[in-house]
Amino acid sequence: MIRRTRLEGRSFLRWTLAFSAMASIAACGAESPDWVSEEWDEESQTSAAPPFLPRPVLRSPKQIPPELQAAHIRSIQEGAPESYAARSIGAGEFRITNPVHRFEGAMNSGGIDLSPPDASWSFSLRTTAVGCEDALVSLAEPTVDAEGNRIRFSRPEIQEWYLNGPFGIEQGFVLDQAPNCQGPKVIQMMTGGDLRPELDDADSRGETIKLVGVDGKTVLVMSHLYVSDADGKTLPAWMTVKSGAIAIHVDDHGATYPLNVDPLIAILQQKIPTPDNVPGGQFGYGLAFSGETVLIGAPKSSEMGFEAGSAYVYVRNNGVWTQQAKLLPPAGDGEEREWFGYSVALFGDTAIVSAPNDMEFGIYGPPRLPSGAAYVYVRNGTVWDPVPQAKLVSNDIAPGDIFGVSVALFGDTALIGAHGDDDKADRAGAAYIFSRTGGVWTQQQKLIASDGSTFDIFGVTVALSSDTAVVGAAYDDDKGNESGSIYVFGSNGVTWVEQQKLTAPDGAAGDLFSYWASISNDTLFVSAATHDHGGIVDSGSAYVFIKGASSWNFLQELTAPNPMPNDLFGSHVAVSGNGAVVGAQQTDAPASNSGAAYWYDRNGPTWTLRHSLPVSPGIANENFGWTVGISGNTVAVGAPFDEPNKATNPGSVYIFVECATNGTACDATTDCCSGSCVDGVCCDTQCGGGKTDDCQACSKAAGGSVDGTCSPIEAGFACRGSAGACDAAEVCDGVDTECPVDGKVAAGTQCRAAADLCDVAESCDGVTNDCPSDTAAPAGTECRASVGGCDIAETCDGIAPACPPDGKVASGTSCRASVGPCDAAEVCDGVSGVCPADNKFPAGVECRASAGACDAPEVCNGTSDTCPDDTKLPSGTQCRASIGACDSAEACDGTSNECPTDTKLSMGTLCRASAGICDQPETCDGSSDKCPDDTKSPAGVLCRASADVCDQPETCDGTNDVCPADTKLPAGTQCRAAAGVCDDAETCDGSTDACPPDTKLPLGQVCRLPKGLCDEFEFCDGATNDCPPDLKTPAGVFCRAPKGLCDEPEACNGVSDACPADQLTSAGILCRPAEGICDIPEACTGQSAQCPADQVGPAGTICREQFGTCDLAEACDGKNPTCPDDSKVETNIPCRPAGAETGIDAECDAIEFCGGEDICPEDAFVPNGTPCAKGTKICENGKCVEPPPPADMALYGGGPLCQTNPVGSSTSRWSLAFLAIAIGSLRRRFRSSKH
Q1: Is CB count within 10 Å lower at the N or C end of the chain?
Q2: Are residues 211 and 322 in the same domain?
Q3: Could you tell me which of 459, 453, 541 has the C-alpha nearest to residue 504?
Q4: Is the pLDDT score of 166 beyond 80?
Q5: Mean pLDDT of 443-466
């Protein structure tokens, strides 16, 4: 069973009702790719190359027809497990429980009644009439039956049904034939309970009805009606509200009966919304779960700047989720579009929040190339330090790395993905291991794929558990373009090593295997959200791997229960222990791309679906399942796009807690779907609150008849215990739920019997609970008489109830005297009250003692009172045994009482022989009984001589009889010392007696190291013991190279070991000649080894003079060492005006123009015969002269000669050309004078 929690203003909205939406939306144009990134904005489009995105964002474009959505919803509803089935509680009466949405319903002929466990509201719905808008006909009372999770209300006019499932309660109607009236058809339903219906009709389409509580807040929502006819055609339908009644209107024009009217009644999920409902924050984009704490990222919140981001910490106390902290980048560090909160990780009291768009080491572009970062925060008690413990960046951080695209945390180890790293290849990717010691984080290692290649995006996802790290490369091409793979790394405590590369067994191009991954101990979940399982495009899969003895092995492929195109099952995965959850962010139920999540648990080695977690009522493009998390019996699901307008997406996180059905064992009310934990089980009511003094119970163990249902306790069950000896216990009668009235025991009834001989019995008084005080018999009252000569009579002491202990005559007091040595006197034993019977000493009891070693003692015979006559031991009876190796035994003589005198063996008698070379023989000393102590040869006494230099002599150890085993000197013991630096010392081999043959160091072995740059190595010759004489490097051999153009090389002098002191080139020596006329030569300074920096002459310095009228002077530019290329006056610029030479008429002289050479062309005249002097003369060889006689005028075409110099004539052209040359010269002078 599942329950959800919602945190909003510190109060809970537990239950809402909704008709399911059949919405559709087109995310992109027809030619959009299968996945698009919502981060790709217009700003990034200005660059020549697309920006590198933090990670590919899966959001498929699609438009889902409402009839397909309705069919999909019904398929999930009809496949609900047994826990959704209706329970019969009487004829035509049923109860249902919805474990996902935590509500209960009662259904009978009067309709349906819904309420939450805490009974904070109630809502009833009853279908009352059908017909047309002005012609409604009241309905007859229905018959009600149920099959599984479907409940049917049957009437002649209309069939009504309800289907209880993961989406809530699906309601449906079937109109077999049209009502006999005109116009749209109407189904009327009356409402009751605490909620009133209001039409929410901003768009005037009648699609939504709010059910509002007494406080004015919306509790339930009814929306998105779907109606179809027998041909499957969708019919126009809408809802209205009037006087508390809800009506469904259907336009049946052209419809084929029967009609199917199919809304969905669902409970709004409990959720944690964005704090303060900040628009656009995408709260839930990042999600991490640990114990009773959840960490939520909102990377596009703008508190510290546009899309700077934030993160929030929520904790659960007694089932209530409250915000504990808000995490932000440090002041001055957060900036626009940093996306703080994009990826988050949580372990105990440590949190990591990434900011993959951090620009500390990035380039603003375009294109924008962020470097990325991750921040570590810690909690002390219940307080999170707002100052990060560390800001993590890699040691080799670079623009475009996107460090922090994914983060993982386990204990004091962090794993950070940077899928833009290009060390292996362009965007091949990397991941980084950081470890914490004493609160300080340091980079431990950089991980890269052994076979990484261009655009693998290794590091797009990471996961960490103990000594195992996994890193995804979703664009790896092993099984086709962008098929994806994941790498497993193991740690020995110091170094992380790549152990295995995993791919999907059915992997194909475009799968994006490793889009997300999660690991817990020996279990690894890897998603491929765009895998085409069974040929269904982008339906998605999740793969389970388990760790074997030496490798990870594929176990199972998980898919959605009813895979559909573009569901993206595997958009996120999380595993913890024996629980796992898989997101499917684009599941189209109840609305297009509203999303879903699937809760799995492990049974043996296999993972099975435990709960489907659809979002309801659900809105289009909410993307519920974008992120998921699991901890114990609690699942968190992120929906960062829970508003239809992306720009205002505040985002939400839904919390689901598994709850128990009635009759299941529980510890607290929060464990139960019903909200009541009574007598150790979940109960259908509060059942007296578990009191023990009533006659109702909810478990068999507490006396009830059924576990989970409150019932009277069976007759005879004690409901009130006795409060005293005179109080009677009350028992249940099996009918009444209250315990009978308290009663007392009747007066005179004995309540305490006499406890002993000196106690008096007491009786109840009929009024009080307790028995009267205990009283004793008077002092002196005899309570026990004497029974014999050894017994004493006892009397009461007036205080104790018991007679004093039975007293006897003291033990040992004589009660009958002895009459002979073998007759025993009788005495009291202190126990028995009578004198013991007259007894003789038993046979064998000595009655006369022995007078010596050879005198036998006499003993009684057991019958006579007297002792037998005195006797001696027979002659030869041993009377003293030998007590040692040097002592003799003695025997009696038959007459004397005493044993003969003790004698010893004579001195020198051998008493112990030698047992070995190290043992001494021992002899008696003539006085002692024992052989002297066994003695060994003293330690150190030689017992085996050395056979050679490597054989050890053996000596006795002073303890053992034998000589120690023959041993050699240990291997490595020196047996011959080195005779010189080139002689090798010899050592024993540990097995032979002799020293090995004498050897020398090999030829070429260094025997003397150089003492300086001018000293040579000396080497052994392999034959002699000594090193050759010390040699120096020959004079003239260089020992120090120059460090620059102004440093002199040094050479050895053949005598000294050291290289001469470093010498610099003298000041003024040329070190870099001029490379051109505009370059300045450089000389050494005598202070530095380097030649001074290269310098060129100042700009404007003339480097080439003007050579002729048509040549231009060139000047240095201050940058290049060479003079600019030789330039000329532009072609067709005049260089000599007409009449420039003496004796030549200007009108008859031609203008010369520059032609690319340095000098002006030679002077030339206008053609002879050219008119001049206003046409009255003609030119002849540069002179204006009179024309020939009139007879020759025909040569010029006749008529008077008329010539002017308008603008554009040769004179005009010259004037303009001269002006151009003058201006050009001025410009050159101005440019030269700038410096």
Answers
A1: C
A2: no
A3: 541
A4: no
A5: 96
Please give the full DSSP string across 323-379, using - where no structure is assigned: EEEEE-PPTTT--TT--BTSSEEEETTEEEEEETT--TT-B-SSSPB--BEEEEEEE
Q: pLDDT tens digits for 890-908?
A: 899 888 888 998 888 889 8
Which pLDDT band holds residue 133 (cuts at 50, 70, 90)? confident
Cα separation of the two ends of the chain: 88
- Position 211 confidence tier, pLDDT thresholds 50, 70, 90: confident
In-domain check, residue 1022? no
- Copy the structure tokens of residue 369: 């190339």
Please indicate, yes or no, whether residues 228 and 326 belong to a single structural domain of this protein: no
Distances (CA, A) of 351 to 287, 655, 716, 915: 11, 20, 59, 79
At residue 646, does pLDDT exceed 80? no
Q: Is residue 1 included in any domain, yes or no?
A: no
Cα dihedral value 561, 564, 570, 573, nearest 10: -40
552 within 8 A of 524, measured Cβ to Cβ: yes
Instruction: For residue 188, list its beta bridge partners.
Output: 129, 247
Indicate the Cα dihedral angle 432, 399, 286, 444, nearest 10°. 10
> The CATH number of the domain where 292 resides is what?
2.130.10.130
CATH number at residue 1043: 4.10.70.10
Using alpha carbons only, how large is the chain's radius of gyration in Å? Answer: 58
Whether 113 and 124 have beta carbons less than 8 Å apart is answered as: yes
Q: How many domains does the chain have?
A: 4
Is residue 603 pLDDT above 80, yes or no? yes
Decide if 259 contacts 249 (C-beta within 8 A).
no
Task: Answer with the one of 204, 233, 265 that is the final residue of a domain.
Answer: 265
**Same domain membership, residue 1179 and residue 1067:** no
> Strand, helix or coil at 432?
strand
**CA–CA distance, 411 with 378 (Å, rounded to integer):** 12
Under a CB-based contact definition with an 8 Å cutoff, are residues 656 and 599 in contact?
yes
d(CA 668, CA 993): 85
Whether 295 and 427 share a structural domain: yes
Assess whether 393 and 366 both reside in one domain: yes
1212: enclosing H helix or E strand: helix 1210-1232
Evaluate whether residue 887 is within a structural domain. no
Q: Comparing 7 with 1083, which gets the higher pLDDT?
A: 1083
Q: What is the pLDDT of residue 643?
A: 66
Q: Which of 237, 265, 293 marks a domain boundary?
A: 265
What does the pLDDT read at residue 203?
A: 55
Distance CA 837, CA 789 (A): 12
What does the alpha-carbon distance between residue 462 and residue 875 come to, in Å, rounded to a whole number?
105
Whole-number Å distance between alpha carbons of 37 and 55: 8
Cα-to-chain-centroid distance, residue 672: 30
| CA dist 1067 → 164, 252, 1082, 1090 (Å) | 101, 109, 11, 12
Owning domain of residue 334: 282-609+621-658
- CB under 8 Å to 752, separation ≥6 — which residues? 725, 761, 762, 771, 772, 774
Tell me: do 533 and 482 sit in the same domain: yes
Q: What is the mean pLDDT of the chain?
A: 83
Same-domain status, 1195 and 1073:
no
Predicted pLDDT at 787? 85
Residues 6+ apart with CB under 8 A from 229: 235, 252, 255, 256, 257, 258, 259, 260
Spatial contact of 483 and 508, defined as CB atoms under 8 Å apart:
yes
Same-domain status, 567 and 632: yes
* 469 found inside a domain: yes
Q: What is the DSSP string of 522-589?
A: TEEEEEETT--GGG-TT--EEEEEEE-SSSEEEEEEE--SS--TT--EEEEEEEETTEEEEEETT--S
